[in-house]
Amino acid sequence: MKSEFDWPVENPYLLRKRVTKDDIDEYGHVNNVRYVEWAADIAWRHSQTLGIGFSDYERLGVGCVVWRHEFDYKKPLLPDEEFVLATWISGSDKRLRVERSYEIRSATDGSLNFSGKTLFVTIDMRTGKPARMPQEFIDAYRPA
């Protein structure tokens, strides 16, 4: 998806969405938990376009799990609002850690609603202990 917005990186992975009634909480705006779900969803979608899906984690015996989220809620998303969610790889130590960044912008005026980062660590899928990043991850998860 081509975007007219000025993202922090060139060619982030983009997903256009609309707020549904199920996204709204008692305060009349999108519940903060929904942002975490959207971040997880777009991260998987982007990873798959980079050539790494869960079946690859299983095949390699190594996967990425969340170590830390850092989310900033700038402006609430409201019922029926259309928005664009962007993600990109913002860092990698090529050993254990991959950082992914996110932004959500209003599809109407491009204003920033949300920004965030997730730090992933690679683990052995059998033991859950830290494991070195396979070459496939190093090649796919390159910073934008």
List unreliable stretches of 5+ residues: none
Radius of gyration: 16 Å
N-to-C SSE series? EHHEEEEH
Instruction: Label the CATH architecture.
Output: Roll
Task: Spell out the blueprint of helices and strands.
Blueprint (H helix, E strand, L loop, with lengths): L12 E6 L13 H18 L4 H7 L1 E12 L8 E11 L4 E10 L5 E13 L10 H6 L4
Antiparallel strand pairs: 1-3, 2-5, 3-4, 4-5
Commentary on this structure:
With 144 residues, this protein is α+β, with helices and mostly antiparallel strands. It has one domain: Roll (Thiol Ester Dehydrase, Chain A), CATH 3.10.129.10. It is 22% helix and 36% strand. It is built from three helices and five strands. The chain has helices at 32-49, 54-60, 135-140; strands at 13-18, 62-73, 82-92, 97-106, 112-124. It has a five-stranded antiparallel sheet with strand order 1-3-4-5-2, covered by helices on one side. The longest helix is centred in the first third of the chain and has 18 residues, at 32-49. The mean pLDDT is 97.
Keywords:
5 strands; Thiol Ester Dehydrase, Chain A; 144 residues
In short:
This protein has helices at residues 32-49, 54-60, 135-140, and strands at 13-18, 62-73, 82-92, 97-106, 112-124.
